[in-house]
Amino acid sequence: MAAILAAARDPDYPARPVLVLSNKADAKGLETAQAEGVATAVVESRRRPREEFEAELQAVLEAHGVEMVVLAGFLRVLTEPFVRAWEGRMINIHPSLLPSFKGLDTHARALEAGVTLHGCTVHWVAPGVDEGPILAQAAVPVLPDDTEAALAARVLAQEHILYPAVLAALAGGARPAQPLPEAALRGWKL
């Protein structure tokens, strides 16, 4: 999220964050957004029916004129009706090369599996966990002496490049079947 806010400081960046929303009042991203002058909201999800949570979520998104939902660290599985309401307008970033290692603990699982490449994926959100058509991926090598923390740091560095670039491509009119524009790929090691 912070990488997207930083990218959006550029007047030529084609997307404008209008709201940072969290289901946790103590989320660090809320402070970051406030410091950038972006509106924030909290829709608490604990101890309430999922339908009630998502109805309030929808109302807040609509009240702020949100056109696209960009999930970043939002560790809640959304229901099919909510996902369908935002179909084609909701993306997520996941710290693995999907379809491998859906869910949590991706870096530990990649190391345990002995893969030689790991990375991150930006995808359209579909019902299910870490499902939906893939928009872009960035890979990093898994080094022989890697720890979970070292691997996670290299993947996170790629996430900070990939996510703002994919959002820019989509906001600029690119469709999922098209590759990212050459300008967005400059300097990438994919």
TrEMBL record:
Pfam family of the protein (one): Formyl_trans_N
Transferase listed as a keyword: yes
Annotated GO MF terms: phosphoribosylglycinamide formyltransferase activity
This protein's UniProt keywords: Purine biosynthesis, Transferase
Catalytic activity: N(1)-(5-phospho-beta-D-ribosyl)glycinamide + (6R)-10-formyltetrahydrofolate = N(2)-formyl-N(1)-(5-phospho-beta-D-ribosyl)glycinamide + (6S)-5,6,7,8-tetrahydrofolate + H(+)
Domain Formyl transferase N-terminal residues, every copy: 2-167
Record's GO cellular component terms: cytosol
Enzyme class: transferase
Pathway(s) the chain acts in: Purine metabolism; IMP biosynthesis via de novo pathway; N(2)-formyl-N(1)-(5-phospho-D-ribosyl)glycinamide from N(1)-(5-phospho-D-ribosyl)glycinamide (10-formyl THF route): step 1/1
One of the protein's GO biological processes: 'de novo' IMP biosynthetic process
Enzyme Commission numbers on file: 2.1.2.2
Presence of the UniProt keyword Transferase in the record: yes
Top-level division of the source organism's lineage: Bacteria
Positions of (6R)-10-formyltetrahydrofolate binding: R50, N92
Active site (UniProt): H94
Marked site (Raises pKa of active site His) residue numbers: D130
SUPFAM superfamilies xrefs: Formyltransferase
Job of this protein: Catalyzes the transfer of a formyl group from 10-formyltetrahydrofolate to 5-phospho-ribosyl-glycinamide (GAR), producing 5-phospho-ribosyl-N-formylglycinamide (FGAR) and tetrahydrofolate.
Family indicated by similarity: Belongs to the GART family.
Name of the featured protein: Phosphoribosylglycinamide formyltransferase
Species, as recorded: Rhodovarius crocodyli
Gene: purN
